[in-house]
């Protein structure tokens, strides 16, 4: 379905201002619990992760911020880190808290039955808000690995009370323009009951907290066959869709490249985002990647992921809204479905290549990266350091 000249210009406008945030941890070594395969040239510290992130933005033009994970990205001076990012042409985005890698958190962090452990976990979250003040970040992302492995292990209801108490303390510490992104995940590492297992639980806590608390949808955190675009439509309608952690999955929380496993699902999600106003110029939805590149090169993996999100977005924007509304009003099931499929089946790669050239970028960022010599340079420069990331 060919869009009119006007709507084509609108589509290009949205694509030109698209903003996809990269995760600092995608650039470090990562793996499974079986093996971390180290790669040459990976960053040795947060400064180098920011440099790699800037390289992805330089080539794609739509990845102007990088999310940090604390303490993986701990430095003495966060203002200096933010200045370093600015010097390289990007900014620091969301601050991710980490209350899942300390021996004290075996039975939970903010929901732990021991008040001393809860205090320690909540203090870390408050420290993350200090980091946000120094970096100028808007969003604090909270993901809790908290949960139980066995029926009876702890009181499910009391754990919700403890969670609400900690969230409320952190919420009270937010500045006027800062937000909590509350992320849910069905299971892992807890295998019986997770304390924030689904969007409904996250949404209910956000409603209790107030307007500055919004839900983060990590596309890898649902049961198989969950209709994620329904969740997106619902949360956008309620004004509580705060962010995405994009990645793709075949089985569990695989953290593979977004759009690799199911590009049709990504298109359906982006259609609901567009339909609900999530791509408007004043959108407050943060579009982030949360991925690990265990076997593929990391910078190239991030570039490919950014391009996959762009392609799904372009296709979603090409859905002929008038034709769809008319078919829906007439109850014409097949015509309505055909409008969606026409957009999904459009090859948007030439459109995006043209957009990049308009922006003064190479039409093919993957080829430009391969030809840039960047990898050869960092492989040479970053010899012998302690490599940062999940494997550290
Ligand atoms: C948990 O699985 C998660 O999705 C959270 O966002 C964490 O902060 C992140 O992964 C770490 O990679
Ligand atoms: Mn995530
Ligand atoms: Mn995850």
Automatic annotation (TrEMBL):
Keyword terms of this UniProt record: Isomerase, Manganese, Metal-binding
Entry's EC annotation: 5.3.1.-, 5.3.1.14
A GO biological process held by the record: L-lyxose metabolic process
Gene Ontology MF term list: L-rhamnose isomerase activity; metal ion binding
Domain of life of the organism encoding this protein: Bacteria
Keyword match Isomerase: yes
Descriptive protein name: L-rhamnose isomerase/sugar isomerase
Organism: Nocardiopsis aegyptia
């Amino acid at each position: 379905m060919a869009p009119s000249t006007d709507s084509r210009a609108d589509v290009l406008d949205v694509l030109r201002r698209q903003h996809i945030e990269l995760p600092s941890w995608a650039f470090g070594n990562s793996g499974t619990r079986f093996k971390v395969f180290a790669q040459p040239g990976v960053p040795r510290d947060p400064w180098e992760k920011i440099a790699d992130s800037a390289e992805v933005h330089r080539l794609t033009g739509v990845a102007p911020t990088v999310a940090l994970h604390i303490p993986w990205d701990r430095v003495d001076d966060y203002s200096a880190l933010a200045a370093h990012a600015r010097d390289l042409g990007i900014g620091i985005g969301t601050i991710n808290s980490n209350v899942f890698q300390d021996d004290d958190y075996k039975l939970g962090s903010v929901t732990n039955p021991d008040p001393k452990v809860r205090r320690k976990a909540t203090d870390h979250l408050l420290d993350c808000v200090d980091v946000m003040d120094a970096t100028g970040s808007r969003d604090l992302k909270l993901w809790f690995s908290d949960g139980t492995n066995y029926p009876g292990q702890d009181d499910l209801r009391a754990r919700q009370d403890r969670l609400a108490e900690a969230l409320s303390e952190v919420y009270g510490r937010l500045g006027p323009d800062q937000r909590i992104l509350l992320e849910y995940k069905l299971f892992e590492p807890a295998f019986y009951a997770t304390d924030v297992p689904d969007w409904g639980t996250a949404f209910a806590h956000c409603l209790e907290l107030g307007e500055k608390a919004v839900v983060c949808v990590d596309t890898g955190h649902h049961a198989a066959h969950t209709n994620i675009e329904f969740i997106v439509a619902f949360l956008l309608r309620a004004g509580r869709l705060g962010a995405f952690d994009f990645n793709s999955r075949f089985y569990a929380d695989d953290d593979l490249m977004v759009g690799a496993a199911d590009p049709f699902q990504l298109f359906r999600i982006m259609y609901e985002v567009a339909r609900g106003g999530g791509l408007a110029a004043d959108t407050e939805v943060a579009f982030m990647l949360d991925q690990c590149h265990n076997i593929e090169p990391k910078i190239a993996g991030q570039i490919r992921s950014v391009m996959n999100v762009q392609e799904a977005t372009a296709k979603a924007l090409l859905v002929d809204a008038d034709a769809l509304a008319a078919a829906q009003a007439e109850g014409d099931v097949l015509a309505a479905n055909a409008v969606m499929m026409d957009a999904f089946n459009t090859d948007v790669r030439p459109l995006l290549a043209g957009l990049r050239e308009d922006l003064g970028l190479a039409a093919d960022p993957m080829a430009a990266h391969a030809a840039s010599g960047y990898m050869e340079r960092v492989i040479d420069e970053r010899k012998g350091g302690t490599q940062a990331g999940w494997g550290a």
